[in-house]
């Protein structure tokens, strides 16, 4: 692939963003990166370096990168992980004309090596004000966005659920890796308490069970069996992304139960699909959710509070549908992919 010098048609300045994904496995960081990168490629001649390249953006290999050494015009090197910052710092020291950008979603104090690397960046993006507060350097907040055309309400939610063959008429879901950090156990505890009272609902847990979490998952299954709810609390395991998107469309209610998150993309994915939302105050939940309007916020690590908040929605699916519609509108207004791409592009332009 021959990479030409791109033109930013909005500002007339020459830019070439290199979107890096130097990671061996697919992760939430990869997912958010993949979604926004094609939008950036519509504005700049952006290229993707690394694995899991999405459609809609040019791919860059090591040979392409080598040919850009000693170029006269600047390249944007956009990192989202420590190893990507390290490579960027080294390449810049060796003569690549790089402007280094780092996006941070972490809501915790950074290690010394991360702090050292952050100080060598030319610009810092934080995905929330909370993430920004841990950086100790100036940053610009650009929240994640979601593709509201892909994550969209179904034409007929009842028919979408019926195609599963599961009992009842409605689904309540909790998506993400099955582990304590995601609060899957809180969801199971709340469902064991609530589902006997609401026979029209089935609960669905969609997410990977890694080998080191097999014992955790087995304990959840024991709790489900003890409650006699094996047919009404379903753990699907990891699914292809298209099937995950379809599962969002089958949900009447979504429970975001994380104990700790950087952002929590499933929040806006579920809202975009029109599911009512009950969320712990983790990640970007307090930024995303208009409490009591587009969702309900509950304390972290509190299964009882989660159950209390979910009860009224399980009791009244029409109320849940109305909340879901308001949630989707909030995503369209505040958390679109176009808004995220525009925020990132504005940061890029400050570096030319």
Shape: elongated
Sheet with most strands: 7 strands, parallel
Question: How far apart lie the N and C ends?
Answer: 25 Å
Assign the structural class, choosing from mainly alpha, mainly beta, alpha/beta, alpha+beta, or little secondary structure: alpha/beta
Neighbour order of strands in the largest sheet: 3-2-1-4-5-6-7
Order of helices and strands: EHEEHEHEHEHEHEHEHEHEHEHEHHH
Rg: 22 Å
Look up the CATH topology of the largest domain: Rossmann fold
Total domains, how many? 2
Q: How many helices does DSSP assign?
A: 14
Report the uncertain regions: 1-13
Average predicted local confidence, pLDDT: 93
Summarize the topology.
Blueprint (H helix, E strand, L loop, with lengths): L16 E5 L6 H16 L3 E4 L7 E3 L1 H5 L8 E5 L2 H12 L4 E7 L7 H7 L4 E4 L2 H5 L6 E2 L15 H6 L7 E6 L8 H11 L6 E6 L7 H13 L6 E5 L3 H10 E6 L8 H8 L3 E5 L4 H4 L7 E3 L4 H13 L1 H18 L2 H13 L3
Parallel strand pairs: 1-2, 1-4, 2-3, 4-5, 5-6, 6-7, 8-9, 8-11, 9-10, 11-12, 12-13
Q: Can you give a write-up of this model?
A:
With 352 residues, this protein is α/β, with parallel strands linked by helices. The chain has two domains: 17-145 and 336-349, Glycogen Phosphorylase B (Rossmann fold), CATH 3.40.50.2000; 157-334, Glycogen Phosphorylase B (Rossmann fold). It has helices spanning 28-43, 62-66, 82-93, 112-118, 129-133, 157-162, 184-194, 214-226, 241-250, 265-272, 285-288, 303-315, 317-334, 337-349; strands at residues 17-21, 47-50, 58-60, 75-79, 98-104, 123-126, 140-141, 170-175, 201-206, 233-237, 251-256, 276-280, 296-298. The strands form two sheets. A seven-stranded parallel β-sheet has the order 3-2-1-4-5-6-7, sandwiched between helices. Strand 4, helix 3 (82-93) and strand 5 form a beta-alpha-beta unit. The longest helix is centred in the C-terminal third of the chain and has 18 residues, at 317-334.
